[in-house]
Amino acid sequence: MTEPESTGDESVIRVLIVDDQALLRMGFAMVLDGADGIEVIGEAADGRAAVTQAKALYPDVVLMDVRMPDVDGIEATKQIVSALPHTRVLVLTTFDLDEYAFAGLRAGASGFLLKDTPPADLVTGIRNVAAGESVLSPRITSRMIELFGEKLPTEAPEDSPAAKIIASLTTREREVLEFIATGASNVEIAAQLYVSETTVKTHVGNLLAKLGLRDRVQAVVFAYENGVVTPH
């Protein structure tokens, strides 16, 4: 699928809101439409409609509820991430330890927000995800590891594509990947490695490119699935 040429201000973050509750969609839209540089371009009440809307509108960010009838947010996230490489999905949930929502992260979402997140944090989350960052706290990272830790291997098989990619990483890139897997921010990684934040950003970019990943959330999952780091 080829995305259309931009027809508006590229500095404006275009958002699609997906939730089966009309009142919540209205509330999110009011918050985001009142923020500078953010425009709500559409809404959807279920996953099927979300995929259709996303393919028609090409949003920068999709606010995605995961618990919906018919096609849920997990399946919708998979389809949107697959079809639209430049669109980021931000999962919405009621509980910060929602196992169903964690599945959304594994499906390719770039972050995780509570539905009662303060308006300012919602706006910041949208901007961070649109900029290629991830919205994933250390607590959520730890919980995700606990949920899926028993299913994770100790390390990738030596002849696997993942093992070959891991072997191609520089020592510094591997260190950065290990820090990312703990939920550390660029600022925290820079402090630990005694380098500048700009240097860390460069390492993160190179790392994601080598791994063929979209963002830090995928890097966390990759690190644990392939034994770069292990639970606990």
TrEMBL record:
GO terms for molecular function: DNA binding. Keywords: DNA-binding, Phosphoprotein, Transcription, Transcription regulation. InterPro entries: CheY-like_superfamily (IPR011006), NreC/VraR/RcsB-like_REC (IPR058245), Sig_transdc_resp-reg_C-effctor (IPR016032), Sig_transdc_resp-reg_receiver (IPR001789), Tscrpt_reg_LuxR_C (IPR000792), WalR-like (IPR039420). It comes from the Bacteria. Transmembrane segments: none annotated. Residues 162-227 form the HTH luxR-type domain. It comes from Bowdeniella nasicola. This is DNA-binding response regulator. Gene3D superfamilies: 3.40.50.2300.
